[in-house]
Amino acid sequence: MISDEQLNAFRVSGEKVRVVRDSIQSNDIRGIVVAWDANQVLIRRPNRNVVKLDRNYIYQLAREPRLDPLE
């Protein structure tokens, strides 16, 4: 699970993050971290929709190479 400190760093920087949900790259969510609680994270996508995601997914900067969740 991603820590509050990491989420806050993503929020403050305003950089796009990638949320890896499974091994299929087209299912990744990209956007900006808006808010979070103990179980979920709100991500604002480029089309301005907000998505609520589980904190157990892999969160990384969008500019970094994609991490495979199965490794």
Automatic annotation (TrEMBL):
<protein>
    <submittedName>
        <fullName>Uncharacterized protein</fullName>
    </submittedName>
</protein>
